[in-house]
From TrEMBL:
Lineage: Bacteria, Bacillati, Actinomycetota, Rubrobacteria, Rubrobacterales
Family listed: Belongs to the class-I pyridoxal-phosphate-dependent aminotransferase family.
Keywords in alphabetical order: Aminotransferase, Pyridoxal phosphate, Transferase
Organism: uncultured Rubrobacteraceae bacterium
Domain of life, per lineage: Bacteria
Name under which the protein is recorded: Aspartate aminotransferase (AspB-14)
Length: 437
């Protein structure tokens, strides 16, 4: 079928579709399964680490309650799993209320539901720059303005955040919430410093905003001290949960295939989210809630998280070592203390998006930085994933990538030399012409 037929109903699509674009990683998926390719593109945890035997055990336990596992469940989730979530959040230092926990189909659905209940067309969201592409995607359906706040090594910078809010207020733009991934952010691997978490809370109070704290990676810390979540800081300063909407997920501490996450928020917000979820999918899967319940109740999940953390730390080290060994000195990258990603910045004249086909032809893939911004920044950046590929392959992958980057840089030098020669040649010809005249 010719491609143009796919757009045959252009005149019928809703306006909201115009702002929606497919994530580069999702589009890349088919190419990346090609044999021989080293993909640093996905955001995949290593689910091979869990093992068939452990999976069979928890499945057998759930099979004894098959009637409930196969049934519809409450929109807010099964009670048992909420107790597990209270334990998981406590392990990260956040005191959660069982009644303030609401189950979602992955944190991704949490992003969609929060946007659904808060955003009217033209409202604004303050995000890190760059930010998680999947959040931009979820928000886009509600047609907001995205205001990126620059980051440094300590995360979103409070001074530009305040300036952006002041400017938006002057222009009559309603900012509804601040979206942040505070720990080992996707895509940069950067962690928001403790004093900035407090500052962000203060800013949200000053401007009466929600903070959407998205924390899939907090437990995957390799080095340094764990920091308090913004949700915990709010509890500390106000004694309860008010403006912080916290998103958690089992994707990175257990497995993304179960598609299970949660929102922790105050009852008013959860009531609206409940209505939003009823329209989206009625309820999340009982089957996977029960699988998780069985595993987290009976197995040593903390030991499994420690196992994953050790695995990823080794891979992070392999990536940082290889970058230092192979990349040209003009390339810079982040040094994450946990999570799944490193963010690399190439010289400003190298376009990582247009370089990708060449990289893939050399069997190495990454995600170009552009997709993590709304509006075209990040062209000379790339996200590199270290959680899914073994250390030796990471090293080889970075070596291949460095060759591609170096070629691009040399191409530019050649072009510059060429144009300088051309200019000199032109100048000498016109000088000759002048003297002849
Ligand atoms: C920052 C962030 N938020 C949310 C998600 C979505 O997670 P889930 O699998 O729970 O839907 C991801 C997935 O990679 C992520 O990186």
């Amino acid at each position: 079928m010719p491609l143009v037929d796919l757009d045959r109903f252009d005149f019928l699509y809703a306006n909201r579709v115009k702002g929606m674009k497919s994530a580069a990683t999702r589009d890349l998926m088919a190419t990346l399964s090609r044999p021989g390719i080293i993909s640093l593109a996905g955001g995949f945890p290593d689910t091979r680490a869990f093992g068939e035997e452990a999976f069979r055990e928890i499945s057998d336990q759930v099979a004894t309650e098959s009637a409930q596992a196969l049934q519809y469940g409450p929109t807010a989730g099964l009670e048992g799993i909420k107790d597990i979530i209270v334990d998981v959040m406590a392990a990260e230092g956040t005191r959660a209320n069982q009644e303030d926990v609401f189950i979602t189909t992955g944190a991704q659905q949490g992003l969609d539901l929060v946007a659904k209940v808060f955003l009217d067309e033209g409202d604004a969201v303050l995000c890190e720059g760059p930010t998680y592409a999947g959040a931009l995607n979820a928000f886009a359906a509600y047609r907001p303005r995205i205001i990126h706040v620059p980051m440094d090594r300590a995360g979103m910078m409070p001074v530009p955040a305040r300036e952006a809010l002041k400017k938006a207020r002057k222009q009559g733009i309603r900012v509804k919430f601040i979206y942040t991934v505070p720990n080992f952010q996707n895509p940069t691997g950067v962690t928001l410093a403790a004093d900035r978490r407090r500052e962000l809370l203060k800013i949200a109070e000053e401007y009466d905003l929600i903070i959407l704290e998205d924390n899939p990676y907090g437990m995957l810390r390799f080095d340094g001290q764990a920091l308090p979540s913004i949700a915990a800081l709010e509890q500390e300063s106000t004694g309860g949960t008010d403006r912080v909407v916290y998103l958690g997920t089992f994707s990175k501490i257990f497995a993304p295939g179960v598609r299970l996450g949660w929102v922790h928020a105050q009852p008013g917000i959860l009531h609206k989210i409940n209505i939003g979820k009823q329209g989206a999918d009625l309820c999340s899967s009982n089957l996977t809630q029960m699988l998780i319940h069985s595993y987290f109740r009976h197995a040593n999940w903390r030991a499994y998280v420690r196992h994953l953390t050790a695995l990823y730390k080794e891979r992070r080290d392999a990536m940082l070592d290889a970058l230092a060994e192979f990349m040209p000195k003009e390339v810079h990258w982040t040094h994450p203390e946990g999570g799944l990603f490193v963010w690399a910045t190439l010289p400003s004249y190298v376009d990582a998006t247009s370089m990708l086909p060449l990289a893939i032809s050399r069997n190495i893939a990454y995600v170009p930085g552009e997709g993590f911004y709304s509006g075209g920044a990040g062209k000379n950046c790339m996200r590199l994933n270290f959680s899914f590929v073994e250390p030796a392959k990471i090293r080889r992958g970075i070596e291949l990538l460095a060759e591609v980057v170096r070629e691009r840089m040399e191409l530019r030098s050649d072009l510059e030399r060429g144009s300088q020669l051309g200019a000199q040649h032109g100048a000498s010809r016109s000088a000759v012409g002048n003297s002849e005249r």
